[in-house]
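Let's sit down with a protein and look at its sequence and fold side by side. We need material for that, and I hope you will provide a protein of your own picking. Once you have written the record down, we can walk along the chain together.

***
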Amino acid sequence: MWNVGLDYHVRMSSLHILDAHGKKVNALTVQGPWTELVAVLGRLADQARAVGEKLAICYEASCGYGHLFEQFSRVAARVVVAHPGQLRLIFKSKRKNNPVDAAKLALLLLLDQVPPVWVPSQDVRAWRRLIEHRRRTVDKRTRCKNQLRALLRTHGIALPPGKKLWALKQRAWLRSVALPTPVDALQRDILLEELDHQDRQVLRVTQELDRLARHHPGVMLLRTIPGVGPRTAEAVVAYIDQPGRFRRRKCIGAYLGLVPCQDASAGVNRLGHITREGPGTVRKLLIEAAWQGVRRSPRVRAFYDRIVGGKDDRRKIALVATAHWLARVMLAMLCHGEAWRPEAPAAAA
């Protein structure tokens, strides 16, 4: 097996090849786009087959890693995508350049010590990007609303409470309200136009996400949980992708960054805040779903109250623990195809 370490960029890539015994076979730099890189790797695969060897490729996950994974899988027997945040040998090195990074990746691949990442299919990657696009668009709309509130509050203009300010009738009032200067009026008009544009964008993305969710049984299954809406269900399903890739249900907490940091040594075990690794969008939606579940489901409320233990300073900890528990329940539901049970099973009770 020839082990290829690859450090790729848009117009230049570095390759380092080691054989099965760790001996350097070749090291080269490819100038040109990714099509040229794939062609060079194809020729390397032919050379490896000529001497009775196969090709294995390792590279870091970056922009376009999914597309390259599909291209490399056509010419290589094994393709491993490394987690860049866990490659301390590279990102904490005092000497860092493309050839050196490629050599380190080839060595890690030879030793089978690469921290891999899951590469979903093209459709799932597009689904994830659309979910993230909707989140960013909603954040832009929220910032626009906050700027409008701040502009009116600056001039002492009373605002209607809650969401009434963004109804059609109230937006007409916003457009007609008198402001002290033409500059303020211009800012108000631009913000309202931007708000209308963001509303249309959110509506288009939401309609497409609803269409995708209707064709996925996992989304409908997770929506049987009280407090879990379509946005939470689709985000969890899209990022879990294949439930069987997790060895245990507890692994989902680490994947979503809902487990505490740990520093254990010599019998002392210190636990800190949650790691916050993995997709932040899913973590945020799970926290919101946990709040709704506490309000709507006696079973979720019982779990939350048990963690709180009657202490008000443990409410935030209990909420995160509830979100972690919901994530494990969701993974189990997707694995077994079972709907939500309003009552806890007898063994768990």
User: Anything to note?
Assistant: The first helix runs from residue 34 to 50. The chain has a mean pLDDT of 90.
